[in-house]
Amino acid sequence: MVRTAALVPLTSTSTTPTAAIDHRRGRRPRAWPQTLGEDVGERAPRGLPHVAASSLGLLALCVACGGSSPSEDPLSCPPSAPIVGVAGEVTTEAFPLTFGADGASAELVVPEDLTALALVAEDGLEYTAFWTVQQDGRRWIDLDADPDGLDAPFFHTWNHAASLTFPSNEASALARGCLRVEVLTDGPGPSGTLHVLTRRRAEGGTMRVDLVRVGATELPGSSFDTLATELAAVFEATGLAVSIEVSIAAVPGDPFPPAEGEATLRLRGSYRPADAVRIPIYVIQGFVDELDTLGIAGGIPGANGVPGAASAGVLVAVDPHLDEEGRVDVLTMAETAAHELGHQLGLFHTTEAEGLDHDPLGDTAECPASRDTDGDGVVSAEECADLDGGNLMFWISGSFPQRELSPWQRRLLALSPVVR
Ligand SMILES: [Zn+2]
Questions:
Q1: What is the residue range of 85's domain?
Q2: Are the C-beta atoms of residues 167 and 415 closer than 8 Å to each other?
Q3: Is 209 found in the same domain as 138?
Q4: Which portions of the chain are predicted below pLDDT 70?
Q5: For ion ligand 1, residues whose CB falls within 5 Å
Q6: Ligand 1 mean position, distance from CA 232 (Å)
Q7: Total domain count for the chain?
Q8: How far apart, in whole angstroms, are the C-alpha atoms of residue 393 and residue 11?
Q9: CATH number for the domain harbouring residue 260
Q10: Ligand 1 centroid to 227 CA: how many Å?
Q11: How far does the centroid of ligand 1 lie from the alpha carbon of residue 281, in Å?
């Protein structure tokens, strides 16, 4: 069975259905022959297209065995449940998951001083998903009711490592108390890992990023040092109150991987930084099967802080950023890298292609479909220039800098548990 957004008709009240994977396309840099129409035709939400039959069986099992509605029951953790994190610090902990017929579960105690929490459930390269995540009186995730991840603010569905970050908008900070998590895998199991990244101090710190050159990838007319400098400059321009540290690394590999598939999953997990919170940006020459795709994030959010996971890093391609003279437009490429990092840390597109779907934040401008003045079916950055066309997280690149972030977009990045 193929899962696409088309199975669930989008309505004007649904938002951003592209939770899991972003294929950022763009105009060619200035003066390149416009290929926008072709690009967006292919940029339909991909979601997570394939769910193995085994997991569908698992879903059916769980639907059958699901009984009470825990959101209506008092939820208390057993005395053995761990209190997550350390007061005043940002930490990473790992807990074993043992999958049975109805998935795996874990109970965690959220302390009063928690400011942000990231959960990553992984089972090798298999698809995993959070089936439910709930607290007393609040069901944050319910894949039974929302299998395609259409519900704000998490838009959660299957990925190669299921990932969630709290908060995801103004109204999704976790409360003190017991947090119960149920995880599904489409793999054989029986064991996986729940990674818990806990922030128990105020926002801010240093975001550490590695530009990872894949194989013989080249930046014609520029350099990795310049790209690193420009990437830091993009974040500085957003007003983000976080230090940015960009280093350069390399891994062997095919500079022209496909956009999806097992080889690409292995590439995404191939870089193992000395410090697990460093986020890899794999710099490839191009996607062999999507020549106009600028970059792809590992998820919204990805498996941050979990090197080796298939959604641990973002991919950014050089060749679709070349100008008519064959030199890389490093300013736009740095924006693409920053845009994908934004997804990786949990930011959605402020406006999606058709102008119907928007991010779950209340303080980002939204560009409506009525702005599609040229009638091509999508809203361009230029058509939305006085709204969110200049936002770093607008759905498509434009002919002007896109380096704006709203206060809440900045706050979510600064709260990330990989910012330390
Ligand atoms: Zn994007």
A1: 53-199
A2: yes
A3: no
A4: 1-74
A5: 22, 24
A6: 19
A7: 2
A8: 22
A9: 3.40.390.10
A10: 19
A11: 14
